[in-house]
């Protein structure tokens, strides 16, 4: 017997209320906001089709997470993990050598905060920010999919071991064992993610970063960097370390020419969408999304994602009408 239309509408609303948090979960699992959206859509379709088999005692949220976990594990089978240039290529000297180009599916990508971070409890939001940093997402990809799921569910979403065991259809002992190995693999043994909120200093640093570009101030930009700062630029196998090589690259690549900047919120970090003119007098067009890792008030990494398709996700036009 089919469900009455009114009951179906209520169920659909109940499913939809979990879309954002499931997107954040799938993004951590997969390292791509595009794949995360697809995974959540698949999760919702599978859940809708299986509603007649849903048991209230299990709870709707755990049931959806079980489906989403299986979807992400299925997507991860038979493919290489997503990565960052620093993980797959030798360091460059800052000369104008971009390296090989890899397809989008090879790289970890950024994600707008509004799509992956919770809107409610400030404490929950603070922990979630740390768990979507580019470096943490990259570390997660080194784990086997089941390890990834356990680490996210236990250390990020704060599920109890017994709840994770039920979701994965295994024992609590097995979950605790998987968690210990996962923490060790990502360098997080015996510690939890440290909650933090965006600081005024982060906003000031981003403003100074943008100002340096707008004033063609190479030395001003370099002064914002840590001594061990890196610059990387997917889809090229390009990365370099240290202010001297980053400065050399910026000058040789004419990185300061004809650009427009729009601050955005990405991966719980200061970020900016960059427009660039293809020719003098041309219309500024979507060029890159740049996400900054900040440590102790200075820039530790500049992740430059050369993917204009990202602009739509950030609610931005691909061209600026002046």
Q: Structural class of the secondary elements?
A: alpha+beta
End-to-end separation in angstroms reads 58 Å
Q: What's the order of the H and E elements?
A: HHHHHHHHHHHHHEEHEEEEH
Unreliable sequence segments: 1-10
The outline comes out as: globular
Report on the biggest sheet.
6 strands, mixed
Mean residue pLDDT? 87
The CATH topology label of the domain at 200-313 is Nuclear Transport Factor 2, Chain: A
Q: Supply the number of helical segments.
A: 15
Instruction: State the assembly state of the protein chains.
Output: single chain
Helix content: 40-55%
Strands, count: 6
Rounded to an integer in angstroms, the radius of gyration calculated over CA atoms is 21 Å
Supply the CATH architecture of the domain at 200-313: Roll
Q: Please write the CATH class name of the domain at 200-313.
A: Alpha Beta
Give a written overview of the molecule.
- Among the domains are: 78 residues, Rna Polymerase Sigma Factor, Chain: A (Orthogonal Bundle); 114 residues, Nuclear Transport Factor 2, Chain: A (Roll).
- 47% of the residues lie in helices and 14% in strands.
- It has 15 helices and 6 strands.
- It has a 6-stranded mixed sheet with strand order 2-1-6-5-4-3, with helices on one face.
- A hairpin with a 6-residue loop joins β1 and β2.
């Amino acid at each position: 017997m089919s469900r009455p239309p009114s009951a179906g509408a209520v169920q659909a609303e109940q499913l939809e209320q979990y879309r954002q948090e499931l997107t954040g979960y799938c993004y951590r699992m997969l390292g791509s906001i595009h794949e995360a959206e697809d995974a959540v859509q698949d999760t919702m379709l599978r859940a809708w089709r299986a509603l007649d088999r849903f048991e209230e005692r299990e709870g709707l949220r755990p049931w959806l997470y079980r489906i989403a976990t299986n979807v992400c594990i299925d997507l991860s089978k038979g493919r290489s993990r997503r990565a960052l240039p620093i993980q797959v290529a030798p360091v460059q000297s800052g000369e104008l050598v971009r390296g090989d180009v890899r397809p989008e599916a090879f790289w970890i990508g950024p994600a707008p905060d509004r799509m992956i971070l919770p809107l409610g409890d400030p404490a929950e939001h603070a922990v979630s920010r740390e768990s979507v940093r580019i470096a943490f997402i990259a570390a997660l990809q080194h784990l086997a999919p089941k390890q990834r799921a356990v680490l996210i569910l236990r250390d990020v979403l704060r599920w109890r071991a017994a709840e994770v065991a039920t979701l994965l259809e295994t024992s609590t002992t097995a979950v605790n064992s998987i968690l210990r190995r996962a923490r060790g693999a990502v360098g997080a043994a015996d510690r939890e993610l440290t909650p933090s909120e965006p600081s005024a200093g982060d906003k000031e640093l981003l403003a100074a970063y943008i100002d340096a570009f707008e004033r063609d101030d190479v030395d001003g930009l370099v002064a914002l960097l840590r001594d061990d700062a890196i610059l990387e630029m997917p889809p090229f196998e390009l990365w370099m370390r240290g202010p001297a090589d980053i400065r050399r690259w910026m000058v040789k690549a004419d990185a300061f020419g004809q650009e427009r900047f729009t601050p955005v919120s990405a991966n719980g970090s200061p970020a900016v969408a960059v427009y660039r003119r293809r020719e003098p007098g041309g219309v500024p067009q979507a060029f890159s999304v740049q996400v900054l890792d900040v440590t102790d008030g200075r820039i530790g990494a500049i992740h430059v994602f050369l993917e204009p398709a990202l602009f739509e996700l950030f609610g931005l036009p691909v061209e600026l009408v002046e």
